[in-house]
Amino acid sequence: MNQDVLLYHVKDHIATLTINREANRNSINSEVISLFNRFLDEAENDHTVRAILITGSGDKAFCSGADLGDLKSGRNDSGGNPISGYANLLKRISKYPKPTVARINGYCLAGGMGFMLSCDIVVARNDARFGTPEVNVGLFPMMIGALIFRNASRKKAMEMILLGEKLSAQDARDMGLITRAVPPQDLDAEVDNILQNLKEKSPIGMKIGKEAFFHMADMPLEKALDYLSEKLMDVASTEDAVEGLTAFLEKRKPEFKGK
C-alpha cells in the first residue's frame, strides 16, 4: 500500500487528513479509503485531537471522486468491494464523534461531494466548483444521494444530479451543500478560525451531542424530544458542563478536559 496517497498529521489538537493524489485531481481509490479508516481510528482514540480537517493537496481539486480505473476493475486491496468500502466510509465520517471540517480548495465532484457532505462544516474557495457528473459517463451518484437529499431540496438536487453540470460555490451555498464560501486568499484563515473555535469547546459535550443528533435524525417529533431530553441530562452530568457553568458565573474562560 502506498501510504503517501493520504497524509495525516496532528498539530495543536487538530488532526488533518489530506488526499494526496494531486496529479489525479485527488481522486480516491481503495488505498485512500483504507487509510482514511486507519487514520480516523487513530484520531478518535487520540485524546489530544479535538477536531478533524479533511482537504486535498494542491489548489486545483479537493477531490474529483472515484478513480474510475479502480472502480471499473472492482479492485480493492483488502479483497472487498470498493463501492461498499466507500459507502461505509461515508457512514463513518457522518457519525464521527469529533467535529469534522472540510476545506474545499478546488473542484469537488462525485465521490468528493460525499466526503464533503459527510462533514459537519464545509468551507470552500468561492471559485470552487461542485457537482455530480456521474450521468455523463453512464453512472449515477447513488450513495452520495443519501447525503445530498439530507442537505438540499429535492428539486435542486435532482436538477444537479440529472444534468451533471457543475455548480458555483455560491450555488452550492444557496442549496445548503456548503456552509461558507470565501476568496481563495482567505480560505486558510477562515478554516483556522473555525478550528481554533472548535478546539476550545467541550470534547465530551460535542461527542454526546453529535451522537444524539445522528440517532435522532429520523425519529418522530415526540420520540426525538424525549430522547434529546435524556441526552441533555447526560451532557449536564459531565465534568465539562460543571466547569462551563462555573466559568460562566465566574466570568472566566472554561478549561474543558473532555470528562
Provide keyphrases for this structure.
259 residues, alpha/beta, 2-enoyl-CoA Hydratase, Chain A, domain 1, 6-stranded mixed beta sheet, 11 helices, 16% strand, globular
Domain unit count: 2
**How many H/I helical runs?**
11
Give the overall average pLDDT.
93
Percent strand equals: 15-25%
* Major β-sheet strand ordering: 1-2-3-5-7-10
Description:
- The chain has two domains: 3-199, 2-enoyl-CoA Hydratase, Chain A, domain 1; 203-249.
- Helices cover 47% and strands 16% of the residues.
- It is built from eleven helices and ten strands.
- It starts with 5 loop residues before the first strand and ends in a 10-residue tail after the last helix.
- The strands form two sheets. The chain has a six-stranded mixed sheet, with helices on both faces. A four-stranded mixed sheet has the order 4-6-8-9.
- Helix 1 packs parallel to helix 3 (82-94), helix 4 (111-118) packs parallel to helix 5 and helix 9 packs antiparallel against helix 10.
- It has 259 residues and is an alpha/beta fold.
- Helix 1 (30-45) links the parallel strand 2 and strand 3 (51-56).
Quick recap:
With 259 residues, the protein is an alpha/beta fold. The chain has helices spanning 30-45, 68-73, 82-94, 111-118, 142-148, 154-163, 169-175, 187-199, 203-216, 221-236, 239-249; strands at residues 6-11, 14-19, 51-56, 61-63, 100-104, 107-109, 121-125, 129-131, 167-168, 180-182. The protein folds into 2 domains: 3-199, 2-enoyl-CoA Hydratase, Chain A, domain 1; 203-249.
